[in-house]
């Protein structure tokens, strides 16, 4: 009897163990599958977190404008224009470096498309107060070129005289720049210092009336300060701007730029038949100096600004000929007022540009009415009263209409 019970117990134990073994085997398999699913879920969550806090940020901005212009001249019946498209790209890697670039596409009078690289820089964030900018950048001299020139920001449909290409204010440069900002007590300050390839100088020849291989006179024609990719004359410039905000609504800036420059080309040689390369090599280097002051004040619906820039070239020699010193001076003041409880804004600007060439001088009074569909989409209607103060030279007034969109 005892043996029978013992045998019964052994048999029952064997059956129980046999029954449990498949269950434990299945449980282990299920546990492994669950572990794999959890690992996959962790990877998915980590991927989602990476998008929330990415290492690389990509951003596209820019602006575009279209318009209409009519000078009222006998040969001008008015023209529509497609203006320009200027996409701006930003690619940033963490808080270390950012690439920024602006392209410009513009329809020309003959229907062709002009393409330009307005700027392209690598910005290295050294610390909270200093950023190293390397490449082609907008000139930090003054504020118009680096802050105001985009059409959706500029409250007028045109740049003030002397602040465009071939004016007194530098447009851009290629080199290295340090810029940033800091506090001085309760006040804020910003700065930029840079060195670059500098401008290229153009000159104009007057050949001898009897022997066209000889030169009777030579003078400066203009300053091209538009961020050249090659330093044609081997001379670097050094300068920058310091801005102070004694109160949040008011900014006062001072700009200085200095260096050496050479004549690199002749804009007009007339009937000259000699070797221009030989002439260029005989021109001595000259001093190139730029000074500027800017003031801006904004308070709710009112925006007032003033800017002055002077570019000066020292005297130089070209063999037996002398290039006299020359200067280009421009300034403007502008006031805008947004009418409360409406989308209308009125704006007025006075500008004065003086150059070594009487035909280029201009005094301008411009008035306009803007309609703000949104803060970044504006319609402008401007009228410019242009006058050349020199006897014998005339300029045309202009009606300008523009739609500008910033994105």
Care to give the gist of this entry?
With 407 residues, the protein is an alpha+beta fold. The protein has helices at 2-52, 144-148, 276-282, and strands at 56-70, 79-93, 97-107, 113-125, 131-138, 172-184, 187-196, 200-207, 215-224, 237-247, 250-261, 263-268, 286-299, 302-313, 316-318, 321-323, 326-338, 344-354, 362-374, 377-387, 398-406.
What would you note in describing this structure?
By secondary structure, the chain is an alpha+beta fold. 15% of the residues lie in helices and 54% in strands. The protein is built from three helices and 21 strands. The strands form three sheets. A 16-stranded antiparallel beta barrel has the order 1-2-3-4-5-6-7-10-11-13-14-17-18-19-20-21. A three-stranded mixed β-sheet has the order 9-8-12, with no helix packed on it. It has a two-stranded antiparallel sheet with strand order 15-16. β4 (113-125) and β5 (131-138) form a beta hairpin. The longest helix is centred in the first third of the chain and has 51 residues, at 2-52. The N and C termini lie far apart (97 Å). The mean pLDDT is 91.
What's the structural blueprint in terms of helices and strands?
Layout: H1 2-52, E1 56-70, E2 79-93, E3 97-107, E4 113-125, E5 131-138, H2 144-148, E6 172-184, E7 187-196, E8 200-207, E9 215-224, E10 237-247, E11 250-261, E12 263-268, H3 276-282, E13 286-299, E14 302-313, E15 316-318, E16 321-323, E17 326-338, E18 344-354, E19 362-374, E20 377-387, E21 398-406
Parallel strand pairs: 8-12
Antiparallel strand pairs: 1-2, 1-21, 2-3, 3-4, 4-5, 5-6, 6-7, 7-10, 8-9, 10-11, 11-13, 13-14, 14-17, 15-16, 17-18, 18-19, 19-20, 20-21
